[in-house]
Amino acid sequence: MGRPRILVVDDEQSIRTLLTGRLEREGFQAKACQSAEEAETEFKKGGEVGVMITDLKMPGKDGFELMKWAKGENANLKTIVITGHGEKNVAVQALRQGASDYLEKPFDLDELVHTVRRCMREYQLEIDNRELVDRLEARVERVEGKDEDKFWYVSKSKSMTKVNDWLSVLRRESMRGGGEEPSVIVLGESGTGKEGIARMVHAGSQRGKGPWVAVNCANFSEQLLDSELFGHEKGSFTGANQLKRGLFEIAKGGTLFLDEIGEMDIKLQSKLLRVLQEKSFRRVGGTVDLDSDVRVVAATNRDLGERVKRGDFRDDLYHRLARVTIELPPLRDRTEDLVPMATQFAERAFGSRGKTFGGFTPEAEAAVKDYSWPGNVREMLNVVERIALIWQGSGPVSGKDLSLPGSLKRAAQEVAQYGDGRHVRPLVSPFSTPDDEGVTGYMELKKKWTESFEREYLINSLTRNSGNVSAASREAQIDRSNYLRLLRRYGIRAVEYRKAA
């Protein structure tokens, strides 16, 4: 893109000649226009206009109209208006409508050049800042990865204050440049979004444009993880048929994320410590030291302090990694975030399927806040994804739609009439806990929970629909014949749930 131009708009030939002549001698690209209409034509021709100098009083469209139109074409445009001697009120009005400065006739040309230079600097600074923000947003989107990793920056919870403070500190220090960026370890329960925080550390660092490489240490044996991290030479072990570059080579100039670092074998921990200290490593079976230009960010859901005490994790490696420790709280400690986060996930999930998310009912919001979310952010994402997948209605999502285990138990029991109308039957809360005493096997317990859920769901759906099987099956989105088959399996008679006429 070429240098921004300057438009000089005035109906007086002498003023246009005077101003453009001086500006061109100062090295600016200046174009003269005798009317607002001609200036608009210049804008439409293309080419960047950074500063516009315009008279306010002209035949046809005046300067005020031109200013408003030009701002619509280029929001960053800087406008300097020309006013007559003593027309302070007009100048103030122009400044209120977005002008950057004004020049009063007769002109001081040195003052003109000074004003134009300042306006052009401001214009260029805004453009540069906008481009910087655009690049950062694009980079963040590129490294954010999984949906559950995109939650931290919308957090309003007090429990997340330290997390956000650390991210701000790391970004600020990164912008200063200079020294080596410290290793970071992110602690937190499974599903809290530790990798998302690690990605944000990478995106806001000096290495943000470099590679982002992640590995889960729990997925590899000691030998395979050694080869995965550091690579191997051809023939170094059985099956090593060719040279392999490790992740420390692949991540050169960027960030290597070691997820579940607490699962790393103690022998491999020694090798990792050497890499962090010496900034070099060798491939498995190699004899040559290779330089390491990688920032390590690690994460774990284990208590590393306890593992250090037991001798399962090296104390010196722990302190080397934990120069910055970010402790990510579980979702149950982030009450203020629960509904906004669920809403954000739901809007994305519904929108990706071409559906409209109508919000949550008050009952559903209470259920979201009341539930403990043992699976944390990942579980919440799965819940809203399930709802979005099966959603066929309109309006807000209810607590019943959420079907969170035990979340509706605290709601007041509803009462529905059935049979002859003289009896009442309390609605059964969805997912109420079956009696698990004596049941330890996975399949047996799973069967018991499934049966409990199916039975209670059928009873609730029949109650809501006054025993009308067709209506209940449509609500459940189950074929009527399959719905009847389920009723027979559990010995449930729809007639018992019909209200008296």
Protein traits:
single chain; alpha/beta; Rossmann fold; Helicase, Ruva Protein, domain 3; 4 domains; 5-stranded parallel sheet; 16 strands
Task: Describe the protein in words.
- This protein has 501 residues and is α/β, with parallel strands linked by helices.
- The protein folds into four domains: 5-127, 3-Layer(aba) Sandwich (Rossmann fold); 154-327, P-loop containing nucleotide triphosphate hydrolases (Rossmann fold, 3-Layer(aba) Sandwich), CATH 3.40.50.300; 332-402, Helicase, Ruva Protein, domain 3 (Orthogonal Bundle), CATH 1.10.8; 415-497, no CATH class.
- Helix content is 46%, strand content 13%.
- It contains 19 helices and 16 strands.
- It has helices at residues 13-25, 36-44, 63-73, 88-96, 109-144, 161-176, 194-203, 222-230, 247-250, 266-278, 304-310, 315-321, 335-352, 362-370, 376-390, 399-402, 442-464, 469-476, 480-489, and strands spanning 5-9, 30-33, 49-55, 78-83, 101-104, 184-187, 212-216, 231-232, 244-245, 255-259, 280-281, 290-291, 295-300, 324-327, 415-418, 423-426.
- A five-stranded parallel beta sheet has the order 2-1-3-4-5, with helices on both faces. The chain has a five-stranded parallel beta sheet with strand order 7-10-13-6-14.
- Helix 2 (36-44) runs parallel beside helix 3, helix 13 runs parallel beside helix 15 and helix 17 crosses helix 18 (469-476).
- It is flat.
- Mean pLDDT is 81; it is low at 137-153 and 407-435.
A few lines on this structure:
By secondary structure, this protein is of the alpha/beta class. Helix content is 46%, strand content 13%.
